[in-house]
């Protein structure tokens, strides 16, 4: 048995979970790091506090969640100075996300110099998407020079959930095709063919694809030129608008889907439209990925919205009965593991995601440790 500490360092927070085998023995969240009124001054103090609190006896590894691994990190990677330098070099691709992970790595390595540390990248699972699925039709020299391509995110979640779906259906993951719908505050869809990602909805950043809590998802890039040239908005303001004031937040003024659903029930037209846009986008991606995969063995909902909102699950897949896709109202309401009617051609599943457990397991794999 080996203990693994999983760290998810954000710009002002650190989430941690300590695993013994597959069991969680400690977990917590330090928030508002460095903010006035926050509990701790910086990441070092936050991690020191975590180390003091938990029992580090038998700790075999620390697994770090890193958002962007660029094109080069295609799996969990044991951290050394060279890896840190390579992750640093990727900061321009993920200026909002990678610096926090680097701080977490730097501090954890200093505090636990004898414990091997592993970086698990949100992008890595998507390294198997074929070139035609990650290349955009833009000037080749620009794309190459500036590393412009689709990378995709939420990889640990899509990997975990697609494998669990196959197991749930009593199938071999290597022979199972799944469309996974990770619908949380961030949201993305993924087409998984025999355990390998072959398409996903996020891009160079986590901005495109599905409608999210505060991110717009797909828009015509011309919107940006128009807001800049015609509306006179500076680029940072446009970026801020699309990433923090877009999505459900932008359309309704609230980012939490529960609030949108309450307003919709009360007859609010903005909330009604936002819900329809949200669900239609999911349906469009399901249709696209049916075509990418050809044969689909399951469609799986996960994350905050996917696991908890029967109305989103039902509306997203409505009208697809001719394709063998439907949702049984009672199973959906009860949140059974399989919510499609008995004998449906394509099972529809609800599988709770567990990114931290997947990070712990991938960290062990990278170090050839057993659970
Ligand atoms: P996550 O990022 O996976 O933690 O998902 C967070 C989001 O899940 C929240 O912003 C909510 O919009 C959504 N959520 C959580 N519980 C429910 C629920 N019971 N019904 C609808 N949405 C929910």
TrEMBL record:
It is found in: Cytoplasm. Mg(2+) binds at residues 8, 355. Substrate binds at residue 65. Mg(2+). Can also accept Mn(2+). One of its GO terms (molecular function) is kinase activity. Pathway: Metabolic intermediate biosynthesis; acetyl-CoA biosynthesis; acetyl-CoA from acetate: step 1/2. It catalyses: acetate + ATP = acetyl phosphate + ADP. Its cofactor is Mg(2+); Mn(2+). InterPro entries: Ac/propionate_kinase, Aliphatic_acid_kin_short-chain, Aliphatic_acid_kinase_CS, ATPase_NBD. Keywords: ATP-binding, Cytoplasm, Kinase, Magnesium, Metal-binding, Nucleotide-binding, Transferase. The record marks 154, 215 as: Transition state stabilizer. Signal peptide: none annotated. The active site is at 122 (proton donor/acceptor). Pfam families: Acetate_kinase (PF00871). Its EC number is 2.7.2.1. ATP binds at residues 15, 182-186, 256-258, 304-308. Homodimer. Belongs to the acetokinase family. Catalyzes the formation of acetyl phosphate from acetate and ATP. Can also catalyze the reverse reaction. PANTHER family: ACETATE KINASE, ACETATE KINASE-RELATED. This is Acetate kinase. It comes from Paractinoplanes ovalisporus. The lineage of its organism: Bacteria, Bacillati, Actinomycetota, Actinomycetes, Micromonosporales. The gene is ackA.
């Amino acid at each position: 048995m080996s203990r693994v500490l999983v760290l998810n360092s954000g710009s002002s927070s650190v989430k941690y979970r300590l695993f013994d085998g597959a069991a969680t023995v400690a977990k917590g969240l330090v928030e508002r790091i460095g903010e006035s009124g926050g509990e701790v001054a910086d990441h070092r103090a936050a991690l020191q506090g975590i180390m003091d609190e938990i029992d580090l006896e038998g700790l075999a590894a620390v697994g770090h969640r890193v958002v962007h691994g660029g094109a080069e990190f295609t799996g969990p990677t044991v951290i050394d100075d060279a890896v840190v330098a390579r992750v640093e070099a990727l900061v321009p691709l993920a200026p909002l996300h990678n610096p926090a992970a680097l701080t977490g790595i730097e501090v954890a390595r200093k505090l636990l110099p004898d414990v091997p540390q592993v970086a698990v990248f949100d992008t890595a699972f998507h390294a198997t998407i074929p070139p035609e699925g990650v290349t955009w039709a833009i000037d080749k020299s620009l794309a190459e020079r500036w590393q412009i391509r689709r990378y995709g995110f939420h990889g640990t979640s899509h990997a975990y959930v697609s494998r669990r779906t196959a197991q749930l259906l009593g199938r071999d993951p290597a022979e199972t095709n799944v469309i996974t719908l990770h619908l949380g505050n961030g949201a993305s869809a993924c087409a998984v063919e025999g355990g390998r990602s072959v398409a996903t909805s996020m891009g160079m950043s986590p901005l495109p694809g599905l409608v999210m809590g505060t991110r717009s998802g797909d828009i015509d890039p011309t919107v940006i030129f128009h807001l800049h040239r015609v509306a006179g908005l500076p680029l940072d303001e446009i970026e801020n608008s699309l990433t923090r004031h877009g999505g459900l937040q932008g359309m309704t003024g609230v980012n939490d889907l529960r609030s949108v659903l309450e307003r919709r029930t009360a007859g609010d037209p903005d909330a009604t439209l936002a819900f329809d846009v949200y669900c239609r986008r999911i349906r469009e991606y399901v249709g696209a990925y049916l075509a990418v995969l050809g044969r689909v063995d399951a469609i799986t909902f996960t994350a905050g919205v996917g696991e908890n909102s029967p109305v989103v699950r039902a509306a997203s897949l409505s009208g697809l009965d001719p394709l063998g896709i439907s949702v049984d109202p009672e199973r959906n309401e009860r949140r059974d593991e399989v919510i499609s009617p008995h004998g449906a051609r394509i099972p529809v599943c609800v599988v709770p995601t567990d990114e931290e457990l997947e990070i712990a397991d991938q960290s062990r794999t990278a170090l050839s440790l057993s659970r």
